[in-house]
Amino acid sequence: MGVIKLSRPVDRAGTLKAIEKRKCEMSLAEFVKAAWHIIEPGQQYIHGFHIDFICAHLEAITDGELNDDGTFYNRLLVNVPPGTMKSLLIGVFWPAWEWGPRNMPHMRYVCASHSLDLAIRDSLRMRRLVTSEWYQFHWGDRVKITGDQNAKAKFETTATGFRQACAFTGITGYRGDRVIVDDPHSVDDANSDAKRKTATDLFKEAVTSRLNNPDRSAIVVVMQRLHEADVSGIILDNDMGYDHIMLPMRFDPNRACVTRLGYADPREFDGELLFPDRFPLHVVERDEAAMGPYATAGQYAQSPEPRGGGIVKDVWWKLWDKPEYPGIEYIVASLDTAYTTKSENDPSALTIWGVFSASGDQASTRMVDRYGRPIESATAVQSEALGATSKVMLMYAWQDKLEIGELVVKVEEICTRMRVDLLLIENKAAGHSVAQEIRRVYNSAKFGVQMYDPKTLDKVARLYSIQHIFSEGMVYAPNKDWAEMVIRQTSSFPRGAHDDLVDTVALGLKHLRDVGMLTRAPERLAEIEDSKVFHGNNQDAPLYNA
Questions:
Q1: Mean pLDDT, rounded, for 406-411
Q2: Residues 183, 223: contact at Cβ < 8 Å?
Q3: Of these four, 53, 316, 412, 517, which has the most CB atoms within 10 Å of its CB?
């Protein structure tokens, strides 16, 4: 049988290019794989499930999908660790994919970062991609960059689309169809209350007004978690309509991500890695050791606080699950004052602490009077002889924004009802006013009022000074919502949005330590041993020399 000769040779290369083009036009993830060699020619492309996960949500924005309430799906918050292609995927590949493969060269992108240099870095990457021979071969008939607007920070298509790079603080000068906010905080700025608030205020007040079409234009925020009150925290706490992708480096079943589109983190086991082909276990462990618990929590776990808590861990609080409190002998209230109802100010906060004996039914022995002054008694001596140690119970907590008159009434009512012995107030201007007003109006109150001066100790140092009380299991709390509020705020400190209750925790427990009411077991043993040792300066010489 003879060989059949085709009239035209098969263009295998052309067929493969057509298939590649078609796959790129159908899938953002496929476009990322195919275009990788343009952006990172010296690095092998490594795929991870998180890339498909994020791409699916970006495609939903591109396709104009609707939410259940009929509004457009156009608000997305992405919290993923650094090194997982978050900036490339959202700020480089996605806009280039919409322009060419999806035939949307008219789209206008405003891309902001905390640093102008970082914003320009990704602008140059995208420009390199869309002007490459590979990209122009496939979509050059759709995407042409104009000669009169082709700069590092901004380049424009002949279809009037553009990509504008800017510092986040300068975003108010621009407007687009897509506003991409990539890391609005630096690590240092997130730890500064003033700089963090500047960024979050700008996000709340300015970003939504930067859209060409308020109904259909999209905002995508991609960042790592650095503080409870960072831009992510503002979005989540204020229910601003964002779908939330949260993929930590190590899987936490208690925080497993499920998005509005129905996508769920596919990992099953606690600690399962996000991107093991790029970040294997030994690399993750090495990086976590170098970063420390707080950086690991924010950058890897996508949580403002380390898992289990920060300075004071969740598990250190002991649960009091009985219907009644134990025999409480001494009760101290700790007040942090901020008397104003303005929403931008912190609330006043109060916690109440009761000391009780660790020996079960035996009540602790009072060692200070109602003003916090140490006293002696026969029962105190007996208690020490038995080696009893004390515990402390969180008996009540409250916080609210009140004017000074309302605050004074509230504090007096709570302290009287809870039979408080001593009310502690931090020695600051607002505290002085409240203390003076309580003494003036309630001069016959059954509780003492004492000002506390922290001197040079800052808030972090104050909490560290009582950390061991928690770690040694001396602090109890009942299963109440107000107790959970205190535990949550204490655990998230110093990365939490508020620290008012934390201040009262440190104030109350440090006072009880200072007056000797909370003696740790090692200290008690040391005292007993020390009492057995001869002190030559204060005692007669022994009968026999050693």
A1: 86
A2: yes
A3: 517
Q: Which two tokens stand for residue 90?
A: 């959202």
Confidence of residue 529 (pLDDT cuts 50, 70, 90): low
Q: How confident is the model at residue 59 (pLDDT cuts 50, 70, 90)?
A: very high
Closest among 507, 503, 501, 500 to 346, alpha carbons compared: 500
381 Cβ neighbours under 8 A, 6+ residues apart: none
What is the domain-level CATH number for residue 394? 3.30.420.240
| pTM over 0.85, yes/no | no
Percent of the chain with pLDDT over 70: 81
Residue 220: name the closest of 80, 402, 430, 11 by CA: 80
Query: CA-to-CA distance for 265 and 262, rounded, in angstroms?
Result: 10
**Are 386 and 275 in a shared domain?**
no
One domain, residues 433 and 469: yes
Tokens 């100790």 — which residue? 457
Same domain, 369 and 243: no
* Domain presence at residue 545: no
Q: Are residues 179 and 327 in the same domain?
A: no
Q: How many domains does the chain have?
A: 2
pLDDT at residue 499, rounded to an integer: 78
User: How far is Cα 253 from Cα 61, in angstroms, rounded to an integer?
Assistant: 28
Task: Scan for tokens 């596919």, then name that residue.
Answer: 266
Q: How far is CA 488 from CA 63, 217, 296, 497, 505, in A?
A: 40, 36, 19, 11, 12
**Range in 1-10, 313-322, 346-355, 439-448 the model is least confident about:** 1-10
Q: Which two tokens stand for residue 283?
A: 């690399």
In 10 A of CB 214, how many CB atoms?
8
Domain hosting residue 514, numbered range: 314-530
Reading phi first (left if > 0) and then psi (alpha if -120 to 50, else beta), residue 197 is in alpha
